[in-house]
């Protein structure tokens, strides 16, 4: 669990610029963008509806979300590297976490 904590802290320490996040949010239409096959989403994409004001809100397990570094490089805050993920997908997608 230490590794997970560390990964979280690193990601939290280097947030995306606010305008990148809001553009990614527009692109995602306010829904989780995750398409990772191992997550067994009902559709090919997660599509969980999210709430803008619940970014990073761990108390909101239904509509909470995070901006995720798609390529794992927290220096790269390009729009194409910013993925809007619900908290469940975010946690499963963090480095050092293997689903299942
Ligand atoms: Zn999701
Ligand atoms: Zn997912």
Structure keywords:
100 residues, alpha+beta, two-stranded antiparallel ribbon, 3 helices, 2 strands, globular, binds zinc ion
| Overall spatial form | globular
User: Number of helical segments?
Assistant: 3
Averaged pLDDT = 88
List each distinct ligand once.
zinc ion
* Main beta-sheet strand count, sense and barrel state: 2 strands, antiparallel
Q: Show unreliable segments.
A: none
Query: Span between N and C termini?
Result: 16 Å
Counted beta strands: 2
Biggest sheet, strands in spatial order?
1-2
Number of domains: 1
- Percentage beta strand: 5-15%
SS class? alpha+beta
What share of residues is helical?
Answer: 25-40%
- Rg calc: 13 Å
Helix-strand string: HHEEH
Structural notes for this entry:
It is a single chain. By secondary structure, the chain is of the alpha+beta class. It has one domain. Helices cover about 30% and strands about 10% of the residues. It is built from 3 helices and 2 strands. It has a two-stranded antiparallel ribbon. One zinc ion (ZN) binds near residues 32, 46, 48, 85 and 86.
């Amino acid at each position: 669990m230490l590794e997970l904590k560390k990964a979280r802290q690193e990601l939290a320490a280097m947030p995306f610029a606010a305008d990148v996040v809001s553009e990614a949010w527009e692109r995602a239409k306010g829904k989780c963008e995750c398409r990772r096959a191992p997550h067994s989403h009902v559709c090919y994409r997660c599509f969980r509806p999210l709430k803008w004001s619940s970014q990073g809100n761990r108390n909101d397990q239904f509509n909470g979300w995070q901006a995720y570094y798609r390529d794992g490089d927290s220096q790269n805050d390009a729009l194409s590297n910013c993925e809007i993920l619900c908290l469940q997908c975010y946690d499963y997608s963090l480095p050092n976490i293997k689903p299942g």
